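Usage

Read records sequentially. Each one opens with the input sequence:
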Amino acid sequence: MTNRKPSRAPARGRAARIAAGIVLVAMLIPGGAPSFARGEPAPEYAVKAAFLYNFAKFVEWPADAFAGPASPIVFIVFGEDPFGDALKSLKGKTANGRPIVVRYAANLGELERCHLLYVSASEKTLLPKILQATKNWNVLTVGDVDGFARDGGTINLVNEERRIGIEINMEAAQRTRLQISSKLLGLAKIVRPGRREGK
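and closes with the structure output:
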């Protein structure tokens, strides 16, 4: 009879919780998340930076959203920057054959045409004005505060028990003529504008 080692379920459970934040990123593209030292928990916004990168791969913009076939996919972080150095990992990366460029805007007057607009939690109350300012853009708006997608943003990143989930407002995506991959939709919760749970 073979002797079995005692179960190490608690340790495994802890490791699973540490890794849970990057599960969806790994499901989207194996190896798509930034690299970290072995055993080191992935910082929240490093994981979210990886999500932004994967969104660029799993969202299709109309051809006229770009000046030419080699034009970059422009990311803008609007408001306070929670990413720190995490977005530096995107330097030199491409998505669907296009280079990724990251820029920053501190106020509405600094906003410029872009393809992915991350709205910081510091600017959530400005969302109606942001959507108005960008209404003629083919832009993917992304946030990570409660109600972002329901309030008109396209994708909301939500923290769910040590993992990151995705909420998608399909009406917002259709309004901006964006095509979201079924692989991404399969991982997301689809929400309707203005509709809260239980209402």
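Summary fields computed downstream for this record:
- Residues 44-191 form a domain with the Rossmann fold fold (CATH 3.40.50.2300).
- Residues 4-41 have pLDDT under 50 and may be disordered.
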